[in-house]
Here is the input.
Amino acid sequence: MAETFIHAENLSFSYQGSNGGDDVPALKNITLDISKGEYVAILGHNGSGKSTFAKLLNLILEPTAGTLIVGGTDLSSGDLSDEELIALRRRVGMVFQNPDNQLVATIVEDDVAFGPENIGVPMPELRHRVDGALASVGMSEYADREPHHLSGGQKQRVAIAGIIAMRPECIVFDESTAMLDPLGRREVLDTIRMLNRENGITVINITHYMNEAALADRVIVINDGTVLMDGTPDEVFAQRDRLREVGLEVPQCAELIHRLREAGIPIEGTAISHVESCAELLAATLRGGEPAHG
Ligand code: ADP
Ligand code: MG
Here is the structure.
């Protein structure tokens, strides 16, 4: 078993009501473990509690009740030192939705250097980290450009480089592709996969795009502040009707398989989350159940 990186047990969070109004419970008794090196997607419609969960992971918000341990640090104890908080935020990076709100410097490489410089990384290590981070997101040739001349996808990749330069163990993407065009989304998703597969970074991708969730190894569906489903993409997208009840869909290829089955076509198999695997299931059915090879 891989080492646990995030351990949540009966984790709850409520926003305080304004002007003496009632508290707003945003997360209710969340219990889950995420292992080191996992690539997890979190799905849920607006207001389900996804961003609240993200903000708890690096203590932008403090748990109201329950246990939350991240990378061995107990965030529910309420008594982290400043050093521990800085260390936590270095280990768990966050990429948010709007790329324009995340870049602080007027030159790309200065932006990437901002975080490590702030925690006192000296030259030449700083140079090495900035160059490496820009290379790994494919933005080396833009090092001396001004961020406001870049596309949305390029800006998000610079923001990601700034986090990579901090040498994080985990990166949380909170709808980081929502404002991007299809090309920008593709660039960022490829970067996310590479960081997970090649650098072993634990990835939590919060999204409401089903096709994006299908790219993860595991999908957690949050609804109304609770965990509704937790499984592989194929396991989660097999439950189309239950997802529909909470206003979510399945990827189009999975929807196609569900509808053909409803129409009486006996399609065997469970690999319904990706176009490639759906095509194989359909091809096998059309061939009359004969094996694809031999
Ligand atoms: P999601 O990211 O899934 O859209 P959020 O975590 O942002 O959901 O919000 C979860 C719930 O908490 C919603 O009901 C939302 O209205 C409420 N909420 C979020 N932020 C605040 C806040 N700052 N003050 C009060 N309520 C909030
Ligand atoms: Mg959100």
